[in-house]
Amino acid sequence: TVPKAAVRCSIPRQSAYRLFKEFNGSNGSVLPGFAPKAKNRGTKRKLFPQHILFLIQ
Q1: Where are the domains positioned within the chain?
Q2: Source organism's superkingdom (predicted)?
Q3: Is the CA virtual torsion 37, 11, 24, 32 positive or negative?
């Protein structure tokens, strides 16, 4: 199954499904080359002093 394959390959499940769909979409004739990482979904980022100064100005 896709979830088990993702664990065995140490990749996120979402990437495994993306690769699986790409492989099936090509009728199994082309190996997928790349599964882009999911975009940041609201995780907080660290602000450095130079960022804070820029925001204040």
Answers
A1: 1-36
A2: Eukaryota
A3: positive
